[in-house]
Design brief:
The chain is 36% helix and 23% strand. The strands form five sheets. It has a seven-stranded mixed sheet, sandwiched between helices. A five-stranded parallel sheet has the order 10-2-1-14-20, with helices on one face. A hairpin with a 4-residue loop joins strand 12 and strand 13. Helix 3 runs antiparallel to helix 4. The two termini are 23 Å apart. The relative contact order is 0.17.
């Protein structure tokens, strides 16, 4: 009997992990990646000796022995990563005032109570929740017994999860009077589930959300190493334009160059909208799927301004929310009153000795503006990038005096850049936002009326993040093996 073949569309985290699990379970796997390197949104780029990170803030599962750490070990040698775990998650600065959000819960509580004593009740409530969630392990495991045991262990946490499941950042921030505290909880993604932030702080408090030195490329490189070592193949610069289906079963794909590739199964780790509405031509839809793509909230897109600075900024915060004296017009529909600044002095691979790479993140929902400029008014597109970078770099020089006249290189990525390199719908920074409506529920990995076709990644897992690629790939590989009557082995 010939070996079953699986074609995987997209070489990001989800596609690579799907390739590893299916290859280990006997499939001949080939990943089709539209670009010249793997990673998708999990990427960085280098300009004149500086590396600018696009994705990775932390990796949940960095702590040996944690549930996600055990799962990451199935797809790469996590011991080869060196993690950095600073004391402070974020510093918020506004009008000469400063609030530090410590990762250690007691210190975080002390700082909030000192800076926002008027909000003592809300502060203590939040810190109690973070302490509790820091001990929580998501249900799962490698054996039926371990999965059942972890589900039982999760039961005491259900009341707290139920209590806050309808809370958004906007609603929880309304409990605070202090402007800096309100800023921390309410800035930006107002519709995001409050539990998403509570869990993020809980993972940090548990020491399970360290930053891997080398960022996205270090992580992706190790997963690629695993995939190659077991005989998996990646075809780069291979853009899929159509998924073929015969008699209700996926049978292959068509590449942009016209080449047709046959297969037994197709796994899409690509953009969800493009997969369903373009590659499959809307042929396999349900009212539920249409409703999801009409009503679910996406993470916004963004403009990222990056700078290489010939100065040692090691005394500065690693992550800074910087208030602006005068708002910046990001585009016709978006105004920024603050800047999200990452100062990568803690990653020695990102800049030459004595120098620092900085990235500034500006969210926007107006991806059409930037894509339209790039496609039809290229001169104005370049001019707008220059205008925005000038404002951002001026704000950086004012906040960091050591950077004044020492910016050696800068770079601007826009929503048009995100769409061009990743194909992500509307240039979204991830996929579906986790809201009270979506909760933690994963969406179906299969489509109605189409066999031999599966989806993995952030578009079937609200909340996104790197673990969604791992977890959905793992679950779908088990589903595929079960449908083929094969035993499933994760490693």
């Amino acid at each position: 009997m010939s070996q079953r073949k699986a074609l995987i569309i997209g070489g990001g985290i989800a596609g690579l992990c799907a390739g590893i699990y299916l290859r280990r379970n006997g499939f001949d796997t080939e990943i089709l990646e539209m670009n010249s390197l793997a990673g998708g949104l999990a990427t960085s780029w280098t300009r004149r000796g500086y590396t600018f990170e696009n994705c990775l803030h932390w990796l949940v599962g960095s702590k040996p022995g944690s549930s996600l750490n055990e799962l990451w070990r199935e797809v790469f040698d996590i011991e080869r990563l060196r993690f950095h775990d600073g004391e402070i998650y974020q510093v918020i600065e506004r009008d000469g005032r400063r609030l530090a959000v410590f990762k250690q819960v007691d210190r975080m509580e002390q700082e909030f109570l000192e800076k926002a004593p008027e909000d003592a009740a809300a502060v203590k409530e939040f810190c109690r929740l973070v302490r509790r969630l820091a001990r929580f392990r998501f249900p799962g495991g490698k054996t039926p017994f371990s999965r059942a045991a972890s589900a039982v262990a999760a039961l005491p946490y259900l009341p707290a999860l139920a209590k806050y499941r309808k809370e958004t950042l906007a609603s929880f921030s309304g409990r605070f009077q202090n402007p800096l505290a309100r800023e921390f909880f309410g800035a930006g993604l107002a519709s995001l589930s409050f539990l998403a932030v509570a869990f993020s702080l809980a993972w940090m408090a548990a020491g399970d959300a360290g930053y891997p030195i080398g960022g996205s490329r270090a992580l992706i490189g190790l997963i690629e190493d695993t995939y190659a070592s077991i005989g998996g193949r990646i075809r780069f610069n291979a853009r899929v334009v159509k998924v073929l289906a015969e008699k209700g079963r996926a049978s292959g794909v068509v590449l942009e160059n016209g080449e047709r590739l046959g297969t037994d199964i197709v796994v899409s780790a690509a953009d969800g909208y493009a997969t369903i509405f373009e590659l499959l031509g809307k042929r396999f839809l349900s009212d539920k799927i249409r409703d999801i793509y009409r009503t679910y909230r996406r993470f916004p897109s963004y403009v990222q301004v990056s700078a290489g600075i010939a100065a040692d900024l090691s005394g500065e915060p690693e992550f800074l929310s910087l208030g602006l004296e005068r708002e910046i017009e990001v585009d016709l529909q978006t105004r920024a009153r603050s800047l999200s600044v990452r100062v990568f002095h803690f990653d020695p691979t990102f800049a030459p000795p004595g120098k620092t790479a900085i990235t500034v993140f500006l969210p926007t929902a107006n991806d059409a503006y930037w894509r339209g400029l790039r496609e039809r008014k290229r001169d104005l597109y370049v001019e707008e990038k220059g205008r925005l970078s000038h404002r951002v770099l001026a704000a950086l020089e004012k906040r960091f005096p050591a950077a004044r006249d020492r910016i050696e290189v800068f770079d601007v990525a826009t929503p048009a850049t995100v769409v061009r390199y990743t194909g992500n719908w509307h240039g979204s920074m991830e996929g579906w936002m986790m809201t009270p409506e979506t909760g933690f529920r994963q969406l179906p990995a299969v489509l109605p009326g189409l066999k031999g076709f599966y989806m993995v990644g952030q578009w079937i897992s609200p909340g996104g993040g790197l673990p969604s690629g791992l977890l959905t790939a793992r679950a779908v590989s088990r589903l595929i093996c079960r449908e083929y009557g094969l035993p499933w082995c994760p490693d």
